[in-house]
């Protein structure tokens, strides 16, 4: 549980930082510590709120063959964008690419973390 939470926090921090570096339309104005707090918030939201939303949205996820999961992930990052005004995401396309970056890092870190535990 704590191992997964830690990996979610790391993927949130790294994902937001990579998005600010490489995605046009994503900016972060403020101290680096605030970006770290935004990543921590994203990791906590992904660990606790996202599983609940995934269970609630099972019919939509089945209907869309799992693609509704991307909408859930985009909502999590949009929530962080609202909570932290220093994070500026201009539109749906930068939000989508930020979501893909955070999601990809999360998958890589969680998969490598599970392999290292065994």
Question: How would you describe what is shown here?
Answer:
A two-stranded antiparallel sheet has the order 1-2. The two termini are 15 Å apart. The protein has 118 residues and is mainly α. The protein has helices at 2-22, 32-56, 58-63, 68-83, 92-117; strands at residues 26-28, 87-89. It contains five helices and two strands, in the order αβαααβα. The longest helix has 26 residues, at 92-117. The chain has one domain (2-117).
Can you lay out the helices and strands and say which pair or pack?
Blueprint (H helix, E strand, L loop, with lengths): L1 H21 L3 E3 L3 H25 L1 H6 L4 H16 L3 E3 L2 H26 L1
Antiparallel strand pairs: 1-2
Enumerate the spans where pLDDT stays under 50 for 5 or more consecutive residues: none
Strand content: 5-15%
- Element order, helices and strands? HEHHHEH
Total helical segments: 5
Shape: globular
Q: What is the helical fraction, as a range of percent?
A: over 70%
């Amino acid at each position: 549980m704590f191992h997964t939470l830690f990996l979610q926090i790391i993927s949130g921090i790294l994902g937001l930082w990579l998005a600010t570096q490489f995605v046009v339309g994503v900016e972060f104005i403020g101290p680096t510590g605030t970006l770290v707090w935004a990543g921590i918030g994203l990791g906590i939201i992904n660990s606790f709120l996202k599983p609940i939303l995934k269970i609630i949205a099972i019919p939509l996820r089945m209907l869309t063959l799992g693609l509704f999961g991307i909408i859930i992930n985009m909502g999590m990052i949009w929530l962080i964008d609202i909570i932290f005004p220093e994070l500026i995401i201009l539109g749906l396309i930068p939000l989508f690419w930020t979501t893909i970056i955070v999601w990809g890092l999360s998958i890589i870190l969680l998969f490598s973390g599970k392999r290292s535990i065994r």
